[in-house]
Specification:
Elements: H1 2-16, E1 22-29, H2 37-49, E2 54-59, H3 62-70, E3 75-77, H4 81-89, E4 90-95, E5 111-114, H5 134-139, H6 142-147, H7 149-152, E6 157-160, H8 163-173, E7 180-182, H9 195-205, H10 208-217, E8 222-226, H11 244-254, E9 256-260, H12 271-274, E10 280-282, H13 290-293, E11 298-301, H14 306-310, E12 317-321, H15 325-331, E13 345-347, H16 350-359, H17 367-375, H18 382-393
């Protein structure tokens, strides 16, 4: 059945090559049909501040379509006639990873703008030389090409942050460095908003649940956020390397809250146990973390690009919990020496992690230097700059 569906898709792809495109129609989408990440923030900005183009959110999930429409924004299902129309007529595709975030088979001749989803050190895409994606990026087998054609379709432009990042991005996506736009990420604009601007944005576009969480966070002395990176070999492991009972007691004593945020692809099997603790909160993997980041105090992470986003916030602390460092580097390689390009208090064991939390001392002397390296002159106007760039290209 999957094979037949893809065959039909390739027929639609050929048709999409001859349908006339309009550069006044901008189509947006996100992985798994969700309303998240860079494309979400850019779409909201264009919808509010620009009347020269028609921004349309496309998703295969009816719940996402209804949610976006409830915000007063334009959204359609790719399985509907209006959705198919805009997907075929859209002159620009803005997405977080691949054109399949919208629909690969309707994207022929559309200008593809990959907003991507984070700066970082890990080798990605066609720079990958090991691990479970070897067949896709190195061997490039027929099966991978047939079922993942979006991976092999190069973007017309890719959003980056600084020339330092662009060098590796260009190699990873097999494009010229000139095609990378060093403007920063739309999702991070909310981090650099004034508190009043942020509250206005949240009041209109955040869910009631998100608003309640922000109020909850403000009742604690400090909020710790644990966000580990995605591990292909540990897709069903999340908090197994944490003694949650011990951490809960530590948080209770310090009048703090620990928020656990798994990766979208991680399967959390001990959900009931995790949610039973008084000072530990489990945030669903698909939730948008960016409205919440400014209301946390300490980030606990590892090899995730969230580290660099968090550096955009002032007066925060960072802990690197590298419990599997030796094994992880065997599975994933880095573009640059890891330890030279990260900041934060390093803990290799759970005992070291709790010691850092108890000491409550964070050396921030390298934060500014690292922020400059990964963000340069980014000032929180990525949405505005990207919009103006492509308006002028029309």
């Amino acid at each position: 059945m999957k094979f037949i569906v893809y065959l039909i898709g390739y027929v639609i792809w050929v048709f999409s090559l001859i349908v006339p495109r309009s550069k006044k129609i901008w189509v947006f989408g996100s992985p798994r049909g969700a309303f998240t990440d860079n494309s979400k923030y850019l779409f909201i900005h264009v919808s509010i501040y620009n009347k020269e183009v028609k921004p349309v959110w496309i998703s295969y999930k009816s719940s996402t379509v209804k949610h976006v429409q409830a915000l007063g924004l334009c959204a359609y299902s790719i399985l509907s006639l209006p959705g198919l129309y805009y997907a075929l007529r859209g002159g620009y595709y803005f997405f977080n990873a691949y054109s399949s975030d919208i629909c690969y088979f309707t994207s022929g001749r559309a200008k593809r703008v990959n907003l991507w989803h984070g700066v970082g050190l890990k080798k990605i895409e066609f720079c990958t030389d090991r691990g479970p994606l070897y067949n896709r990026y190195v061997r490039k087998t027929f099966k991978e090409r047939f079922y993942y054609p979006q991976v092999y379709l190069r973007p017309d432009n890719l959003i980056s942050s600084t020339p330092f990042q662009t060098v590796k991005f260009a190699q990873a996506f097999r494009i010229h460095e000139e095609q990378c736009l060093n403007v920063g990420y739309p999702r991070n604009d909310i981090l650099l908003m004034s508190e009043n601007e942020r509250k206005i944005f949240i009041s209109r576009f955040a869910s009631d649940k998100m608003k309640e969480l922000i109020e909850k966070f403000q009742t604690y002395k400090r909020v710790f956020l644990y966000m580990p990176t995605w591990r292909e070999s540990q897709r069903k492991l999340f908090a197994e390397h944490l003694d949650l009972e011990s951490l809960n007691e530590l948080m209770r004593q310090k009048e703090c809250l620990l928020v656990l945020k798994p990766h979208l692809n991680t399967v959390v099997e001990d959900r009931n146990k995790i949610t039973s603790y008084s000072n530990i909160f489990l945030l669903e993997g698909g939730e948008d973390i960016y409205p919440l980041l400014a209301y946390t105090d300490i980030l606990i992470t590892d090899y995730s690009s969230i580290l660099y986003d968090y550096l955009l916030l002032d007066n925060k602390g960072i802990i690197l919990y590298l419990y599997d460092y030796k094994d992880y580097v065997k599975e994933r390689d880095f573009n640059y020496p890891f330890m030279e390009n990260v900041v934060g208090e390093v803990a290799y064991t759970f005992a070291e992690l709790t010691a850092v939390i108890e000491s409550d001392i964070y050396d921030k002397s390298r934060y500014g230097w690292m922020r400059e390296r990964f963000w340069g002159g980014y000032d929180g106007r990525a949405c505005q700059i990207i919009t103006e760039l492509f308006i002028n290209k029309r």
